Amino acid sequence: MPSRYRAIFFVSLLLVTIVVGGCADPRPIKQLPAPTPIGRLVEPTPTLVPALAAVMGEGEEGTSTAEVPAVAPAQLPDAGAGQQIFVQNCAACHGEDGKGIVQGTPDYTDPEYVRNVIPAVLFEVITKGKGAMPAWEGTLDEQQRWDVLFYELDFGIKEEDLAKGQDIYTQNCAVCHGEDGKGIVQGSPDFTSPEFWVKASMADRFEVITKGKGAMPAWEGTLSEEDRWAVLSYIRTFGYKSVHQP
Ligand code: HEC
Ligand code: HEC
User: Fold this and answer.
1) What is the residue with the minimal CA distance to atom 43 of ligand 2?
2) Is 101 close to ligand 1, i.e. is its CB under 6 Å away?
3) Which of 31, 45, 89, 103 is the most buried (most CB within 10 A)?
4) pTM of the entire predicted model
5) Domain edges within the chain
6) For ligand 1, is residue 106 a contact (CB within 6 Å)?
7) What is the pLDDT of residues 6-29, one digit of tens each?
């Protein structure tokens, strides 16, 4: 419809919402939630609760990993192998394009989603099921469950980001982390360990790249936000086989 009518339509919709909202039965005072303590004013949105609760923890360092299941792949997850499994078992509900068909399924092509989830948490959902999501432990072995999960998480990764990330890595990071990602400088993590990647979200790792930590320099002044995500997408592929690897 022409934009003028569309505008009128939305304004009317807004008015109806306000009027109806205003007439709704007000909640009794007693049921009002307790005041939020300062520092926790931003509550996690319900759909992200498991991941966010684990990321945010309850304050001090160390507690944040407490809610992450202690599971890790025995070998590198292979997204290419996961593709077969996905098409056969998961696409009916999650969509061949990963955008989700059945209500409640996430959009795997949304970078925000992929950046904020903790793979170990999602692995548990695949293993045990959740709501309308079936359990797969009786049907798929552990490695197959990791492979299919990394295929799902691969939807939002772009081949050009991996290529660009590799250049950035060679120029800025390899001196301490090694061309092979295993780490040279003392204290640098082993990027080829899948466990390193499944127990935290990409957003957690991004934070350290941005702000630095100990002997790890901060990169916010040197690399753009886009470049920091590109290099992170690249170093993550030390820990799994992406279908987008150039
Ligand atoms: C019958 C439909 C259906 C099938 C088949 C299915 N899923 Fe799901 N899946 C769902 C629904 C619905 C949810 C949302 C569950 C919830 O949050 O209550 C979900 C959630 C998930 C989640 C967690 C998402 C999150 O952010 O918490 C993962 C991971 C997942 N599915 C992977 C798979 C994999 C891998 C397969 C195939 C091996 C598969 N699913 C097959 C319906 C399905
Ligand atoms: C001067 C050496 C040095 C350089 C250069 C360097 N790093 Fe690091 N990096 C480290 C050290 C040391 C650690 C371990 C920090 C710690 O845990 O105390 C680390 C940790 C990390 C981590 C793990 C973060 C976490 O969550 O624990 C990531 C990811 C990372 N570096 C990425 C990069 C990237 C990307 C670059 C290049 C843009 C880079 N590093 C450049 C030394 C370096």
Assistant:
1) 216
2) no
3) 89
4) 0.80
5) 79-153, 159-236
6) yes
7) 555 554 544 444 444 444 444 444
